TrEMBL record:
GO biological process terms on file: DNA repair
PANTHER family associated with the record: BC025462 PROTEIN, FANCONI ANEMIA GROUP I PROTEIN
InterPro entries linked: FANCI, FANCI_HD1, FANCI_HD2, FANCI_S1, FANCI_S1-cap, FANCI_S2, FANCI_S3, FANCI_S4
Gene Ontology molecular-function annotations: DNA polymerase binding
Ranges where the record places region Disordered: 1226-1246
Domain FANCI solenoid residues, every copy: 62-262, 356-519, 762-984, 998-1221
Compositionally biased intervals (Acidic residues): 1226-1236
Residue span, FANCI helical domain: 267-348, 533-745
Superkingdom in the source lineage: Eukaryota
Domain FANCI solenoid 1 cap: 1-52
Protein name per the record: FA complementation group I
CDD domains listed in its UniProt record: FANCI (cd11720)
Length: 1246
């Protein structure tokens, strides 16, 4: 070694060459090995060897090759110091270009063999490989097998061989790093990336982030992020067995690498977003997290949120479309749920994904802002407070709320921001509905009240704005904040202070907000023993509320409606509340027992200029007093049974106001029965017009008096305890109420001014439920005589039922009812169950013959009222609490036919009951047919059938029965026909495609209405007897189903298009003669649809909406056909396949059958329609667009599709002689119409 070093330092290389020639290969190898291991003068020695080995001579070239062949494995062995190995590789890299082509080929083979054998574990020598490959590529020709290859081709073969072989997982990162220095073509890069991705599953999890980093650098160099998709799939699917926390931490690191790379190279970011825009099916929790992290780069923020918003709403729409169609369910698997992926991302973010949390918060609010309820006309919410999210927009809004709630629970750093943003929206969005933000705030408070106390200052700030917020927002906010008030005295004090100020607000809503707040505090504020502090706070609250008794009617009304709930929740306040109510009642009560009426009505109103207003809602005041008194008496009785001794002083005080109130109510009842309407100045001669102040005053008085009668009726029924005399008094009260009610109806019907709405009944829902149960279901012998008093009055029974329906309707519209327990959903639901049972019994057990006498009257029968109530109950339950539907049905009396445990059987038991009732209706003659009752039965069957599973035998029985009824019923009733067909279609789409059903109905309609050419006799068809001359127009409900079929076909074509775009040509090619199942289904659907529309365009429809609607549906059909043609143009361009024969038949059907008939129908419509419509030019444009793209497809596919198209006649300047003559003769009212000049069409084929 020393000799080589000393010779290399000399001037002459001849001696060095001689000396090296004298050494054998083994001696040279030993010298190099020893020098490298010692690490001394190794560089100088190597330089000497290379200096004495001129590349021009064969001996020198061989020696150089020997040096490379020996030192490469030595560096890789790990025996050398890192610095020594690095120096050696560096020297070798410098000398690589001097090697001959054959030497380079041998070295490259050496590397490939070492990689295949797994001997490149440390990867130190791999830095040399790119230099060798680059030098190889520069060679002109290299021997390969028996022939020659260019250096570039040789390099390609090597890379191919390398990527096709087995790699040691330990060397994957080294190899990927090495390839960054190798010039690669796009094809080679793709080959390499595929190989690396296949290695993911075999690698240690911790090695994945650095490998991704190397891939990113490699990809950035070539601006080709093609590996992204595959990488996410591999990372997501191959590592299911790895512990979640490890996997999530690795994913988090990978995301950081990707985002860092995107910040440096925006082309990567653009490519990433472009790849996701094509299909949301490629999203997974990891890619959602990546996108949210990318959103932190400002230039991508808007694009990312728009992309995710679009993916969410499209996913929900697709899900809705698939769930509502058996045709689509059978054809395609259920699509992945983007919502689930996003929620999984929220769960995964707990593993240190801080870079994702900010994006989650922004996306959550973005979804809630975008898809929350919108303000309707005059700022009212267009969506009622329905609990179940049904539309895609509602579901997307709900998803935003779920994300924020989960994020709030999991991540401490973002809690403050979430809370602040929610509260800001509650305060600032006064013109829009904020129910979704209130729900979120309520969920946050109830899930983590103690955490929220840390941000109590933000809640206190919001209190200051309460006076200026809409009443609904204040009520929701104060309800949500209740759990916080229970644990924080300072918050409670802040709120009380704000509410006191609000009590003197100039705005009515501000004062109402104050009442709401005080009532909520009283409800939830518990007195702890006899603590003077808590009692004094309660006293102050009561005093504040008493001030409300001098305010407007609306404020007083809120107070009266709230007192009962306060009393129930906080019975210690009984004395204060009852004394307050008693003193208020005294103001309007006439104590002189001989004077009539017993109440002073004049102080109940106030005048401002010409306007008269209600000042005191007297009936509500008495109603509140009655309910509070009744509850106290009931609880007192229960307490007396349990406890013998009690506080005598408190009891005496209680007895004092109780006896006084009872005396007042007894006296009021007695005197109100004696009162005639003249005593209130409300007889038939009184004016009730709402156009004059006198009329308004009389209306107010009438409503107050009717309310008083109702309140007293309820009070006396409870007090009567089924005493006959008491119930006779109750009936007297009703007669007075009924008389006044009839006068009001009569007067409001006559006046030309604004009509008077029926006032809402003041009977409580609980009482109505008890009353109708007593009237119809109470069989006890002891009560028989007393109840017969009420049962004998038909008017009273009708009144009880109509109030029950009114209460159910209020529940359906708003989610709650007036009166006690109206806001309490569980109690209200219990009343609903009781009512359902009674109404069902009344409808099914009272024969219709009993009611025949009532048929002569214009008003509806009691059976109809029962049905109306049942329909509203089922609809309300299905919309507001679908999970309780089974409980509601189970609450009814089920006979032995249905098993109590089987919910589906119970449901079907009731369906059969209503089917029987409808069958009975249809079995009688048409003169006995009650159309309204039949419609209600169909509506009830529609609601109940939604509870059936489409796969169940009950569902099949239901659809079979419906088809049978449609086929056999021939009543000429349009509304009933419409309802029955709607039911049929709603069932059919969940059973199979409705296309064949459409065709049969269209044939029936054509047969009934006749042809547009009067000379053509239409073949008589009768698939469905329900379609007849009178109902054929109603049967055009089929056009809405045409829309549905087109929606599904459009959706399928769009899916196929996106699949074709993302597939490689190799994947997309299909076996000869085979057609894709989706394409086949689309073609068959459109074929049936075209045949059905072909029937309708030949039908002599009545001029009007149905004609215009048909023209629009035809336009849409041609637009869908055009979309399908465009799809095949795209398919021909990418696959070079032949067109399916089914598609050619479809084109033939459209060209030779439908299009000529469309032009005939256009002529017919132009003659019939008296107004201009854009539907006709739109249809012509759609047909022409279709034909235009057919020409393009003909050229691309080399198939002449235009042979099936008949040229349309010129539409400009055309006069139809027959139509013109007919119109002229009609105007002149002359005799016969001239014969049509147009040639007759052939009769329809048999």
């Amino acid at each position: 070694m020393d000799k080589i070093v000393s010779l290399s330092d000399g001037e002459s290389t001849v001696e060095l060459q001689k000396y090296l020639s004298s050494l054998t290969n083994d001696q040279l190898i030993t010298a190099m090995t020893n020098s490298a291991l010692r690490g001394k003068k190794v560089g100088t020695m190597l330089k000497g060897i290379l200096k004495g080995s001129p590349p021009g001579s064969s001996e020198g070239a061989n020696r150089r090759l020997l040096v490379y062949e020996h030192l490469i494995p030595l560096c890789e062995s790990g025996d050398l110091q890192a610095e020594v190995a690095a120096d050696i590789i560096g020297l070798l890299m410098l000398e690589t270009r001097t090697l001959s082509g054959s030497s380079l080929a041998k070295l490259a083979a050496l590397f490939v063999d070492a990689i295949k054998a797994g001997k490149m574990g440390s990867g130190k020598s791999l830095e040399l490989f790119p230099t060798i490959l680059t030098a190889l590529a520069a060679c002109a020709a290299l021997s390969y097998g028996k022939g020659e290859l260019s250096g570039e081709e040789y390099k390609k073969q090597l890379i191919n061989s390398l990527c096709s072989s087995r790699w040691d997982p330990q060397c994957v990162i080294h190899l990927t790093t090495m390839f960054r220095d190798v010039p690669l073509s796009a094809e080679e890069l793709q080959f390499l990336v595929d190989k690396v991705l296949r290695m993911f599953s075999k690698m240690d999890l911790q090695e994945i982030p650095p490998l991704v980093y190397q891939l990113l650098l490699l990809s950035a160099k070539y601006l080709n992020p093609c590996f992204f998709f595959c990488f996410f799939r591999n990372l997501h699917l191959e590592v299911q067995t790895i512990p979640q926390d490890q996997l999530r931490h690795v994913e988090g690191t990978v995301i950081l690498h990707v985002v860092f790379a995107i910040r440096l190279d925006h082309e990567l970011g653009r490519e990433l977003l472009k790849s996701f825009k094509t299909s949301y099916g490629d999203l997974c929790p990891f890619s959602v997290a990546l996108l949210l992290s990318v959103a932190r780069v400002q230039r991508y923020e808007e694009q990312v949120f728009d992309l995710l918003k679009g993916a969410v709403i499209k996913s929900y729409k697709d899900e809705q479309l698939q769930q509502g169609s058996k045709f689509l369910q059978d054809l395609l698997p259920v699509h992945c749920s983007v919502a689930k992926m996003i929620l999984d991302t929220v769960k995964n973010s707990v593993f240190g994904w801080d870079h994702v949390t900010q994006g989650l918060v922004q996306l959550g609010f973005f979804l809630m802002d975008t898809f929350g309820p919108k303000p309707g006309p005059f700022g009212k919410s267009t969506e009622g407070p329905v609990t179940a999210a049904r539309t895609p927009s509602q579901q997307a809004c709900k998803l935003g709320g779920q994300m924020l709630l989960q994020g709030f629970k999991m991540h401490e750093p973002i809690r403050g921001e979430i809370l602040e943003q929610v509260l800001n929206r509650l305060v600032t969005k006064t013109a829009s509905p904020v129910s979704h933000y209130l729900d979120l705030f309520s969920d946050i408070v109830s899930s983590a009240p103690m955490i929220l106390l840390e941000s109590s200052s933000k809640v206190t700030e919001t209190f200051d704005h309460l006076t200026y917020l809409p009443l609904g927002t204040v009520q929701g906010f104060l309800k949500a904040v209740q759990p916080l008030l229970k644990v924080s005295m300072s918050l409670k004090d802040s709120l009380i202070l704000v509410l006191r100020k609000a009590m003197f607000s100039s705005q009515l809503d501000g004062r109402k907000s104050a009442v709401t707040g005080f009532l909520l505090l009283l409800k939830n504020f518990k007195v702890l023993g006899s603590l003077a502090s808590s009692q004094s706070i309660l006293l102050k609250l009561i005093i504040s509320l008493r001030r409300c008794l001098g305010q407007q009617a609306d404020v007083r009304l809120m107070l009266y409606e709230g007192f009962y709930d306060v009393l129930r929740r906080n019975s210690q306040l009984a004395s204060s509340i009852m004394q307050t109510l008693l003193s208020q009642v005294r103001r309007y009560y006439e104590p002189e027992q001989d004077l009539l009426p017993p109440v002073k009505l004049e102080p109940c109103i106030t005048a401002h200029g010409d306007q008269v207003y209600l000042q005191e809602p007297l009936a509500h005041l008495v109603s509140c007093t009655v309910h509070c008194l009744t509850w106290l008496q009931n609880t007192h009785q229960a307490a007396n049974l349990n406890v013998d001794d009690s506080d005598d002083e408190a009891e005496e005080e209680d007895e004092g106001y109780k006896s006084e109130l009872q005396t007042i109510l007894e006296s009021m009842t007695r005197r109100m029965i004696k009162c005639e309407l003249e005593d209130f100045e409300l007889d038939k001669s009184a004016e009730f017009s709402l156009g004059s102040s006198v009329g308004v005053k009389n209306n107010i008085f009438a409503v107050l008096v009717m309310g008083l009668y109702e309140v007293l009726m309820e009070y006396n029924f409870i007090r009567a305890n089924y005493n006959k005399t008491r119930l006779e008094e109750l009936l007297e009260l009703f007669h007075r109420h009924h008389k006044l009610s009839e006068i009001l109806k009569e007067k409001s019907g006559k006046g030309r001014g604004p009509s008077h709405k029926t006032p809402r009944s003041l009977l409580s829902m609980g009482f109505v439920s008890t009353l109708i149960t007593a009237l119809f279901r109470d069989n006890s012998q002891s009560r028989e005589e007393a109840l017969s008093v009420l049962r004998s009055s038909g008017e009273f029974v009708r009144y009880a039922l109509s109030v029950a329906v009114q209460k159910i309707q209020q529940l359906e519209d708003t989610g709650h009812t007036d009166g006690p327990d109206g806001q309490h959903s569980d109690r209200t639901f219990r009343f609903l169950c009781d009512m359902t049972s009674v109404l069902m019994w009344r409808y099914t057990n009272i024969p219709r013959a009993v009611e025949e006498a009532g048929k002569k009257e214009k008003r509806c029968s009691l059976s109809q009222l029962c049905l109306d109530g049942l329909l509203r109950i089922f609809t309300t339950c299905q919309q507001r609490c679908p999970e309780k539907m089974a409980q509601l049905l189970s609450a009814m009396d089920v006979e032995d036919e249905a098993e109590q445990d089987d919910v589906a059987e119970i449901n079907y038991f009731y369906i059969r009951q209503f089917q029987r009732a409808l069958f009975t209706q249809l079995s009688g003659g048409e003169e006995d047919f009650n159309s309204r009752e039949a419609q209600l039965l169909v509506s009830i069957l529609t609601v109940l059938s939604r509870q059936l599973k489409p796969s169940s035998k009950q569902f099949v029985q239901m659809i079979t029965w419906t088809v049978k009824i449609c086929k056999e019923t021939s009543f000429e009733d349009s509304a009933f026909c419409k309802g029955l067909l709607s039911l049929l279609f709603s069932l059919q789409v969940l059973y199979k495609t409705p296309a064949s059903l459409l065709l049969e109905l269209c044939q029936d309609i054509h047969s009934q209405l006749g042809d547009i050419d009067q000379d053509v006799e239409v073949e008589k068809q009768c698939h469905f007897a329900i379609v007849n001359m009178k109902t054929a127009t109603a049967a055009l409900l089929v056009l809405t189903q045409v829309d549905r079929v087109l929606d599904e076909v459009d959706w399928l074509i769009a899916r196929k298009k996106s699949q074709t775009a993302s597939e490689k040509p190799a994947d997309a090619s299909q076996a000869a003669g085979q057609q894709d199942p989706v394409e086949k289904a689309v073609t068959l659907q459109l074929g049936t649809l075209l045949t059905a529309l072909n029937e309708l365009v030949q039908t002599a429809l009545l001029p009007g909406n149905c004609t215009v609607t048909l023209l629009r549906e035809l336009s849409r059909t041609y637009a869908t056909l055009t979309t399908l043609v465009k799809y095949y143009i795209q398919a021909c361009a990418s696959q070079h396949g032949s067109l399916p024969s089914r598609f050619e038949k479809l084109v033939k059907l459209s060209g030779s059958h439908l299009t000529p008939q469309c032009y005939s129908f256009i002529t017919y419509a132009q003659a019939k329609l008296l107004r201009e419509t854009t539907a006709i030019p739109n249809l012509i444009f759609s047909i022409e667009q279709y034909e235009k793209y057919l020409i393009t497809l003909s050229k691309k596919s080399k198939v002449n599709l235009m042979q099936y198209m008949k040229l349309s006649t010129s539409r400009d300047f055309r006069i139809n002689a027959a139509t013109l003559d007919a119109a002229l003769q009609e105007q002149e009212e002359t005799g016969e119409v001239e014969e049509s000049q147009e040639p007759k069409r052939k009769k329809r084929k048999q």
